[in-house]
Amino acid sequence: MIRVEDLHKSFDGFEVLRGVSFQVERGEILALIGRSGHGKSVLLKNIAGLMRADRGHVFIDGEDICRLRGRKLERLRNRFAFLFQGGALFDSLTVFENVAFPLKERAGLKDGEIREKVLSELELVGLAGAEQKYPAELSGGMMKRAALARALVREPEIMFFDEPTTGLDPIIAHAILNLIDSIHKRLRFTGMIVTHQIPRVFDIVQRVAMLYEGSILITGSPGEILSSGDPIVGQFIRGEVEGPIDYH
């Protein structure tokens, strides 16, 4: 479904991605883990076509998103949805209007159909009755749920989650991951999730890839990652200060 080959991306001469290669099978969620500020979100945005790689390939069902332009790129990206770290809700729109926005932009549905679909999605994420609130009136967890409803309202084939639990307390963070898991079981989308909720995220994903120093150090099932004998993987998973990863 998604195949990344030798992807490179630099900023001001600093190479963030240094030949990243891995793949995500259809219908599975892959957790992308690694140190903060070392390129996970950059990688996710390159795969989603929100950034342009310096070189390399990202194949979506055989189409290289790095080579597409214009309508062909837009048509492919219509199959995606992206949940940003901060939710990226429109401050001047209500929750209802935020969730309805992608339907009005692309789906060509009647107002009654849009209303029914939006209210149904809000109920599924636990926001029934909050449709007339504005983002400033929402808690952090509610904002994440509203953003998730907006991302999923068009039932995308591919979902990208960029640190969906950032800034949330552990209980709410677990609730968001549980919600993603239940929605995945309903829609069976192909997904990638960047998160530091380790090992909790391993309960909802089928595979894991660790980004380290600009490339993929290891991929495998959650069980394989947890039992890995690699000292770098072990130190990161256990959150230890001492080890081959220099945190100073």
What does it look like?
The protein has 248 residues and is of the alpha/beta class. It has eight helices and ten strands. Strands 6-7-8-3-9-10 form a six-stranded mixed β-sheet, with helices on both faces. β1 and β2 (14-24) form a beta hairpin. α3 packs across α4 (111-124) and α4 (111-124) crosses α5. It is globular and about 55 Å long. 36% of the residues are buried.
Descriptive tags:
alpha/beta; six-stranded mixed sheet; globular; Rossmann fold
The run of helices and strands is EEEHEEHEHHHEHEEEHH
| CATH superfamily descriptor of the largest domain | P-loop containing nucleotide triphosphate hydrolases
Radius of gyration: 18 Å
Mean of all residue-level pLDDT scores = 92
User: Architecture of the largest domain, CATH level 2?
Assistant: 3-Layer(aba) Sandwich
What's the total number of strands? 10
Strand order of the largest sheet: 6-7-8-3-9-10
